[in-house]
Amino acid sequence: MRKPGRGARLPFIRPMEPELVEQPPKGEGWSHEVKFDGYRTQVIKDTDGIRLYTRTGIDWTAKYRPLAKEAAALEAESFIIECETIVTDETGLSDFHALRSAITRRPQDLYLVAFDLLHLNGHDLRDMSLEDRREILQALIAAGGRIQFSEALPGTGDAVYHLACEAGLEGIVSKRLDSVYRSGSTMNWRKIKCYVEKEMDIIGVKRETGKPAIVLMADHGRYMGGAFVTFKADKRQALWARVEGKAGAAPPNGLAKEKAEWLKPGLVGRVKFLKGEEKLRHASLKDFREDE
Question: Is 35 marked active-site?
């Protein structure tokens, strides 16, 4: 879709996806934005009207009807805008867990956060730099509505990331200002998630020769996955002593095929893991104790 006709129906464009990395990029030439905790959404306007698509290209216009109505009011003949659909909590932060119910029950509470512009008024903008695309997009988005522009945050990547985590955000997305838009994964865009710590039940362990030791965790009875054990020798031995005292439990429902030592209740671990994931990811055990 390099040069579509002005009256052509615009097709869905497969999204450009940031790679997950551990640290924000250093140096100049990067834009740093909040990583909103929502659903990736592509908004298309053409001669057939407004359509809103999911990350995989499913038409969700009917689910996003209030947002579609507001998008139709943007002053342009045609466009393709990349956004995140979110709902906010009482503190103003995006709340992923409340998003699904908001879509079905309170669609009027949804917001679109617009972060990129791929097409405008018959012109394909994907070969333009990110910096130029976003400048045009910002001028297109009216202030004060439920479609908002994703502002770049001032400062170095390290500083922005630190402030985002301190503020309780999921993380940041760093993008090369000179990057063109290409579908698929790219290191020109990078997402850096914040970590959180939480106490969970240790329900099992995996100790295999030649592999890192892993504790298996559950949160209020829900299996969450594994966390690496990186303790020094003395603390590691203390953990294994507690494990031996709890060993011998039957496998939890649905986990019989896991090759693990299953533990009786009573051992709690404090685990550090990436925020915003359904299961533990990049997780490590920070401490442990007997349940009181």
Answer: yes
